[in-house]
Write a structure and sequence with these properties.
Blueprint lengths: L3 E7 L5 H12 L3 E3 H10 L3 H11 L6 H12 L7 E5 L5 H13 L6 E6 L2 H9 L1 E4 L5 E3 L19 E2 L6 H24 L3 E5 L4 H14 L1
Parallel strand pairs: 1-3, 1-4, 2-3, 4-8
Antiparallel strand pairs: 5-6, 5-7
Length: 219
């Protein structure tokens, strides 16, 4: 099997985290999540890490040039010589073009972009189904984990529940709309480069992974 240099894409709630875990276990490649490498770069006070911290401390978005620099520093490390999986990068076309340049400089070109596609309406149901018992804080989900008796907490027997702001359908719809807007141009970009593999994320987690695994083994 050739080296797997991957980008993993998917909207919030598409189950990317679960699939990422399985890919790294089976294919033994480092998982490069932008959140993790930012924290690492800041902790080690690398040049780019120090730069990023200035923006993060002010609650501002880190500019592409800094993000790209942190990703390139990470991709230059020896543990990714035999493959890697990027998660959370690129987030826009400029970053995608920068990634093309850095992977060609480092001679680690992308093998494939795996996009876990789930119908946005299903995502809203998945993400906004969570609710919490007002009395004891037990967490439920209207689809995957409802109380045994409707309207009654399994743990303490109380009947009042609430939803966190970021679990409310309106908030979730907005989050998905923002992410769709970001992802759509990237999907077209990688489609044109014949690197994109769309995986149906509407099925059972294990079936999603079987599809992912089939694609990766074929590469």
């Amino acid at each position: 099997m050739s080296k797997l240099n991957l980008v993993l894409m998917g909207l919030p709630g598409a189950g990317k985290g679960t699939q990422a875990q399985r890919i790294i276990e089976d294919f033994k490649i480092p998982h490069i999540s932008t959140g993790d490498i930012f924290r690492e770069a800041m902790k080690n006070e690398t040049e780019m890490g120090v730069e990023a911290k200035k923006f993060i401390d002010k609650g501002e978005l880190v500019p592409d040039s800094v993000t790209n620099g942190i990703v390139e520093d990470r991709l230059a490390m020896d543990d990714v010589n035999d493959g890697f999986m990027l998660d959370g990068f690129p987030r826009n076309i400029d970053q995608a073009k920068a990634l093309d340049e850095m992977t060609s400089r480092l001679n680690k070109p992308l093998t494939a972009v795996i996009n876990i596609h789930v119908d946005p309406e299903v995502l809203v149901e998945r993400l906004s189904g969570r609710f919490i018992c007002k009395n004891c804080g037990a967490t439920y989900h209207k689809l995957y984990n409802p109380p045994k008796v409707e309207g009654t907490c399994d743990v303490c027997g109380h009947h009042e529940f609430f939803q966190r702001e970021d679990d409310k359908p309106e908030t979730v719809k907005n989050r998905i709309a923002v992410n769709t807007k970001l992802n759509t141009p990237l999907i077209s970009y990688y489609e044109e480069k014949h690197l994109l593999y769309n995986i149906n994320g509407d099925q059972d987690i294990n079936d999603v992974y079987s599809e992912v695994k089939k694609v990766l083994e074929a590469l």
